Amino acid sequence: MGHTPTTTRGRATRGRILDAAAELIQRHGVAAVTLDDVERAAGVGRSQLYHYFDDRDDLVRSVVHATVDTVLAAQEPLLLHVDTVTGIDHWFDAIVANGTRQDAVGGCAIGSLAAQLGGRDDLARQAFVDAFARWEAPLIAGLRRMQESGDLLPNVNVTELADLTMAAIQGGLLLAQVRRSPDQLRLALRGARAALDDALTPLPT
């Protein structure tokens, strides 16, 4: 790994390089972005870039980790409350609202990178394994709390339910991006919500 900056100026320079690389990759795709492109966009030279990153692959993997941090930080306030049906509904609504603000063309930043890099090397693949595990962990924990409180049926596999939900989110975001319609995301989340309904403990009659 490249040099980890210890000064405010160094952290700012490294952050500027990462931001420039992330924006270029989002716009043009990983394969089309060169180190020359990143240097021009960040206003740095090759020696500065290599001071903070070992090579292009190291820079790209760092972009992956930074993208994950950004996505999860934006959702963290909602993920703290996915231990109730209402909290999960609010989370779903926020995902749809975010897609609508992007005119349903942005897709998922993590999913987009994973499609381009998931099979590139073991380090990149593991970065995405870790990313989705970090994203899914609060949902698994929330569903487990719902089960412990009696809201979910005791025989429900909460990990499988969380996996289904994440698959619906990723698939819905991809379809919304391709078809330019947030309705595709709403439909996918409606399916995840139906699976949650089936897992709920029936109310006494």
Automatic annotation (TrEMBL):
SUPFAM superfamilies: Homeodomain-like, Tetracyclin repressor-like, C-terminal domain. Residues 34-53 bind DNA. InterPro entries: Homeodomain-like_sf, HTH_TetR, Tet_transcr_reg_TetR-rel_C_sf, YxaF_TetR_C. Residues 11-71 form the HTH tetR-type domain. The keyword Transcription regulation applies. Keywords: DNA-binding, Transcription, Transcription regulation. It holds the Pfam family TetR_N. This is Transcriptional regulator, TetR family protein. It comes from Winogradskya humida.
